[in-house]
């Protein structure tokens, strides 16, 4: 390991300041103290996204012991089985890894000058440490609120499908794609490209949330969203094309929700319609168009098109009602 330069925070200092507790235990010791089998403890760390440690590496803290003890308590009480623990750990690890990386990039990009010194880096770390208690409190509050929102959505879906826990649910799925992103990415510098992508994701997120729907994921120049009703999806799409140069494809039908994502033919159809759509237009499938009957939207039938892997499909161009 190379020595840290004077004034520059070392990896150990960063970990100590942000985690708050010094490492005291090896892999075997943290498993023994928590009462969790070492094999299961190692599976949990891997699911959380942490690198495998050497057998003799002192890398685990009292907080790690406490976390594993809570896992053991859930297992002993029959609240969760081992497979569910691993799945929950993977969901937690992947989500928080992206969150932490994103927040770190925001902090560094906001606070550091173009040519930062070691002292500037230390200042960012001190600021992050001071903000941690408030960040932690807000994080838990937002997570609980999002959990409540997810539960409410699942309850509404279960009512519509008349199943307590539906494995396939009917919903609207939409893709919104930035037009000419490849060309624009070649023309823009790194900072301008990052601002373009972040601005697009921010506006899309605001519009989707404003209509009570869910932004499932972002893919740089594309976002995937879901809505419970066709009219809700139509309102989102029409608002989006007024703020960006986009093409949007949407479909309504059964999807399989899994790992926070959605899968199935309906998702594939929405993606194919997006690829067919002209810049500045919204294409929807026949099922979504039928669900807009009598609303403030006008789906206009156009000629049938071949869609890769799905055969020939009947698209509709979506516009606001002229009345």
Automatic annotation (TrEMBL):
It comes from the Bacteria. It comes from [Actinomadura] parvosata subsp. kistnae. Residues 172-274 form the Guanylate cyclase domain. SMART domains: CYCc. This is Adenylate/guanylate cyclase domain-containing protein. It holds the Pfam family Guanylate_cyc. GO terms for biological process: cyclic nucleotide biosynthetic process; intracellular signal transduction. One of its GO terms (molecular function) is adenylate cyclase activity.
């Amino acid at each position: 390991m190379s020595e840290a330069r004077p004034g520059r925070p070392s990896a150990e200092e960063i970990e100590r300041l942000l985690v708050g507790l010094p490492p005291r235990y090896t892999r075997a010791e943290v498993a023994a103290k928590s009462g969790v089998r070492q094999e299961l403890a190692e599976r949990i760390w891997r699911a959380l996204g942490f690198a495998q440690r050497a057998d003799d590496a002192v890398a685990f803290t009292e907080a790690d012991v406490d976390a594993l003890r809570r896992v053991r308590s859930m297992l002993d009480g029959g609240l969760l089985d081992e497979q569910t623990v691993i799945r929950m750990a993977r969901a937690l690890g992947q989500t928080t890894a992206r969150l932490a990386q994103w927040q770190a990039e925001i902090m560094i990009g906001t606070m550091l000058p173009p040519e930062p010194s070691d002292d500037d880096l230390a200042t960012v770390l001190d600021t992050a440490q001071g903000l941690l208690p408030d960040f932690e409190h807000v994080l838990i509050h937002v997570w609980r609120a999002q959990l409540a929102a997810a539960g409410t959505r699942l309850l509404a879906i279960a009512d519509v499908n008349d199943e307590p826990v539906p494995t396939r649910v009917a919903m609207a799925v939409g893709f919104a794609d930035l037009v000419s992103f490849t060309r624009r990415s070649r023309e823009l510098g790194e900072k301008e490209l990052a601002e373009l992508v972040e601005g697009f994701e921010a506006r899309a997120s605001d519009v989707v949330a404003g209509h009570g729907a869910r932004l499932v994921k972002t893919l740089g120049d594309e976002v995937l969203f879901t809505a419970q009703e066709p009219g809700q999806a139509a309102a989102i799409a029409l608002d989006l094309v007024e703020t960006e140069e986009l093409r949007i494809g949407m479909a309504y039908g059964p999807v399989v929700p899994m790992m926070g994502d959605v899968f199935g033919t309906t998702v594939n159809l929405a993606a194919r319609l997006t690829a067919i759509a002209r810049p500045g237009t919204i294409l929807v499938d026949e099922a979504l168009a039928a669900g807009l009957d009598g609303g403030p939207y006008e789906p206009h039938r156009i000629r049938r098109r071949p869609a890769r892997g799905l055969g020939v499909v009947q698209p509709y161009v979506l516009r606001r009602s002229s009345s």
